[in-house]
């Protein structure tokens, strides 16, 4: 076997890293626009519901369905949308989502009745389920350099966190000064530049493999999420004791349990369980779930307070939330760019939750005469700062370290937790607030302002519960997030895990004793080679780090090792490359060139009479006996193994009804022809019977080859029959026992030989 070409490089401090795509910040603007379009619809239409109801003439129950139709379709199809992004390409799914969402928005804006509006909202949710995970996964794969990734997620997290508040402002302005229909038409104004930008600025990503879609998994998870979201939505308009509430919640829980059990066995799972296995990712998803639940305590009940108690108009109500949005955006940038890289999420995220707790508790002090500047603004600023500190960092860690093939579904898992958190919060807080208002009114009938005070009391109850959500978030994130030092010192992977487990875009630890090795992998023509496995070994041959190159061919490896290290790059269809680099504590840059390997084996597998054998298994093993490649033959019996290292190997071929064969082969620079002919397998069968001709069951029949090896043992059936299949053409001995044994020799020449055996008892 040829030696791997080696290069020795004395690498000193690196220069500037390789320049990523010059359009990436414009791409962020496009992704941000699309995300804004999705999050706006969580609240923008709510402001317009009274006007839409008056215009189209539907009842109050219909108002609930305008909201529920969107959340049901969106929440139940998110994981499917994320998997479709992985299967068919993120850019394609992103564009389809934008076009479909815009078309549904135009349909809703032009609605001439209740049914048309509900259908449009459901279609909006469907395409939103395609758009949201594709947007987040595009962001993850576009920004891979740690500092830029932090900045990009700060912007994205600010949009996701403040979109509901912006929706309130925009919804109020459009409804008051134009028409309720513009709360839907506005999406088309956002979609047009987003669509143009997506086509021009975002690079196309096509998956290397397109595995089959797990239909059963899709049905289970979509049905389960539908049941959960609908159950909580039903609790808002009915009671928790209503059979539709607990029935849908129970059915949803059972379906989700069945989904997770199935995902552990499915060949092509919708949500690979490896996506949820990381502790930091579990902590990040918990943060998003709890923050989403807590946020609704602000937007929902503070909106009630500002409009019903203080008499704010919809526009003034929306403007009142803008300082919170500003605080959220500022802290999002500080958190992701400064605090998390230096301190780590284990401290930053819980602190953000604690600040949110303080803001919620402060809101409970509002009364009928509270003023905006002195009483409402300070807790709003606290909440904006707390959410801006926690949410963007959590969103970044929710997709950090996920292999490229799972980015879409990981993004969908994040959006799903956000949607479920909002659904749980809305239903639970509405129910608790309504009960609190009723109880207060029953015990304060003499109060001349009983209605206003009862409403105020119900808001306080909701704020306290939201504060409780954030307290739970503090506990969960403190327990789950790994400490920064432990994360930096942890090995790049555990034994047996694939290369993609180590995040190629993981933020470089800030500890001074950690060196960073970066570079780009190209082929002989200078094109990037994504998915290249990058392995770093120390002087004793121990693996110290492992990762994979990104879509643009760049890689980044973090290791605390010093001195001379071995860097290995290997990619499917290419010859591996190895180099020696020296790390001295400063960042190091080293590129790898992996030359395409045209060598391999190709040929045809035929049977004894020359017929082609489709579906035959062809396996190549190296001189140590390790499997290096495998495939199955096509309809014409042809096969090709194109990713083999040069040198000697063994080709093993097997097919049903034929004897397996193994032939030596030599892999060179060109694909070597290697045809294989398989001999049809023979069968020895027969019957064991008594002297009187009756069949003898449970008799033991053993087949021994010419060398004395036991080929197999059978026990006769009720009719005395036995059979040995897949035999080579040679001499065998058939021995029947149970009575005095009888040995019979048989020479197998054809496809089948019948050997009947007569067994007699000793005393017979």
Name its key features.
single chain, alpha/beta, Growth Hormone, Chain: A, Immunoglobulin-like, five-stranded mixed β-sheet, four-stranded mixed β-sheet, 50% helix
Descriptive overview:
The chain has 5 domains: 401 residues, MFS general substrate transporter like domains (Growth Hormone, Chain: A); 54 residues, no CATH class; 102 residues, Immunoglobulin-like (Sandwich); 78 residues, Carboxypeptidase-like, regulatory domain (Immunoglobulin-like), CATH 2.60.40; 77 residues, Immunoglobulin-like, CATH 2.60.40.10. The protein has 764 residues and is α/β, with parallel strands linked by helices. It has 17 helices and 25 strands. The two termini are 67 Å apart. Helix 2 packs across helix 3.
Give the helices and strands, then pairings.
Elements (H helix, E strand, L loop, with lengths): L5 E3 L15 H17 L3 H13 L3 H29 L1 H20 L4 H29 L3 H32 L4 H20 L13 H23 L5 H21 L15 H31 L4 H7 L1 H22 L1 H19 L8 H28 L7 H37 L6 H31 L3 H6 L25 E8 L10 E5 L5 E6 L5 E6 L3 E8 L6 E7 L4 E2 L2 E2 L6 E7 L10 E5 L5 E6 L5 E4 L5 E8 L6 E7 L3 E3 L2 E2 L4 E8 L10 E6 L4 E6 L5 E7 L3 E7 L4 E6 L4 E3 L2 E2 L6
Parallel strand pairs: 1-7, 2-8, 2-9, 10-16, 10-17, 18-24, 18-25
Antiparallel strand pairs: 2-5, 3-4, 3-6, 6-7, 10-13, 11-12, 11-14, 14-15, 18-21, 19-20, 19-22, 22-23
């Amino acid at each position: 076997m040829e030696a791997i070409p080696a290069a020795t490089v004395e690498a000193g401090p690196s220069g500037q890293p390789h320049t990523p795509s010059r359009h990436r910040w414009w791409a962020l603007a496009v992704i941000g626009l699309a995300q804004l379009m999705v999050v706006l619809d969580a609240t923008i239409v709510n402001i317009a519901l009274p006007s839409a109801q008056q215009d189209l003439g539907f009842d109050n129950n219909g108002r609930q369905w305008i909201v529920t139709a969107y959340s049901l379709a969106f929440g139940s199809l998110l994981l499917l949308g994320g998997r479709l992004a992985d299967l068919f390409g993120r850019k394609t799914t992103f564009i389809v989502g934008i076009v479909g969402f815009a078309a549904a928005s135009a349909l809703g804006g032009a609605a001439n009745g209740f049914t048309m509006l509900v259908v449009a909202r459901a279609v909006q949710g469907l395409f939103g389920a395609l758009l949201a995970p594709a947007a987040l996964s595009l962001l993850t794969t576009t920004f891979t350099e740690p500092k830029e990734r932090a900045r990009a997620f700060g912007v994205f997290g600010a949009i996701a966190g403040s979109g509901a508040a912006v929706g309130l402002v925009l919804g109020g302005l459009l409804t008051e000064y134009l028409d309720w229909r513009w709360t839907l038409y506005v999406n088309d104004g956002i979609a047009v530049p987003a669509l143009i930008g997506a086509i021009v600025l975002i690079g196309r990503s096509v998956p290397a493999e397109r595995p089959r879609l797990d239909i059963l998994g899709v049905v289970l998870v979509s049905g389960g999420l539908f049941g959960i979201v609908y159950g909580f939505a039903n609790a808002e308009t009915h009671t928790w004791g209503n059979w539709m509430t607990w029935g849908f919640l129970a059915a949803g829980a059972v379906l989700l349990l069945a989904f997770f059990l199935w995902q552990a066995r499915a060949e092509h799972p919708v949500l690979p369980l490896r996506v949820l296995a990381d502790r930091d990712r579990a902590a990040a998803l918990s943060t998003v779930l709890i923050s989403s639940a807590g946020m609704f305590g602000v937007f929902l009940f503070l909106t009630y307070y500002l409009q019903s108690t203080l008499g704010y108009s919809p526009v003034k109500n929306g403007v009142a939330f803008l300082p919170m949005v500003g605080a959220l955006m500022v802290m999002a940038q500080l958190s992701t760019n400064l605090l998390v890289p230096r301190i780590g999420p284990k401290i930053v995220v819980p602190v953000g939750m604690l600040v949110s707790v303080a803001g919620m508790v402060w809101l409970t002090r509002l009364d009928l005469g509270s003023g905006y500047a002195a009483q409402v603004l300070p807790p709003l600023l606290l909440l904006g700062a707390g959410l801006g500190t926690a949410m963007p960092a959590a969103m970044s860690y929710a997709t950090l370290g996920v292999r490229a093939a799972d980015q879409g579904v990981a993004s969908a898992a994040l959006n799903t937790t956000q949607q479920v958190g909002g659904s749980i919060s809305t239903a639970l807080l509405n129910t608790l607030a309504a009960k609190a208002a009723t109880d207060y009114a029953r015990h304060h009938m003499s109060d001349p302002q009983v209605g206003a005070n009862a409403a105020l009391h119900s808001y306080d109850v909701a704020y306290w519960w939201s504060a409780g959500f954030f307290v739970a978030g503090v506990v969960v994130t403190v327990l789950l997030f790994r400490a920064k030092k432990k994360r930096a010192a942890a090995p790049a992977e555990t034994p047996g895990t694939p290369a993609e487990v180590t995040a190629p875009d993981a933020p470089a630890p800030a500890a001074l004793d950690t060196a960073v090795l970066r570079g780009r992998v190209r082929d002989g023509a200078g094109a990037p080679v994504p998915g290249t496995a990058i392995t770093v070994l120390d002087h004793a041959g121990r693996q110290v780090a492992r990762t994979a190159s990104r879509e643009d061919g760049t890689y980044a490896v973090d290791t605390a090792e010093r001195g001379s290290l071995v860097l290995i790059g290997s990619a499917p269809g290419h010859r591996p490359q190895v180099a020696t680099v020296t790390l001295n504590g400063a960042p190091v840059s080293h590129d790898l060139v992996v030359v395409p390997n045209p060598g391999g084996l190709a040929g045809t597998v035929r049977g004894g009479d020359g017929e082609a054998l489709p579906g035959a298994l062809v396996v190549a093993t190296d001189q140590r006996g390790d499997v290096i490649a495998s495939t199955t033959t096509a309809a014409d019996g042809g096969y090709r193994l194109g990713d083999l290292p040069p040198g000697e190997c063994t080709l093993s071929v097997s097919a049903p009804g034929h004897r397996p064969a193994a032939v030596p082969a030599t892999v060179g620079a060109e694909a070597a022809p290697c045809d294989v002919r398989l001999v049809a397998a023979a069968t020895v069968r027969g019957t064991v019977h008594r002297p009187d001709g009756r069949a003898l069951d449970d008799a033991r029949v053993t087949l021994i080859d010419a060398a004395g090896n036991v080929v197999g043992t059978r026990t006769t059936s009720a009719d005395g029959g036995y059979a040995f299949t897949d035999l080579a053409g040679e001499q065998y001995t058939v021995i029947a026992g149970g009575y005095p044994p009888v040995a019979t020799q048989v020479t197998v020449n054809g496809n089948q030989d019948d050997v009947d055996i007569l067994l007699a008892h000793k005393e017979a």
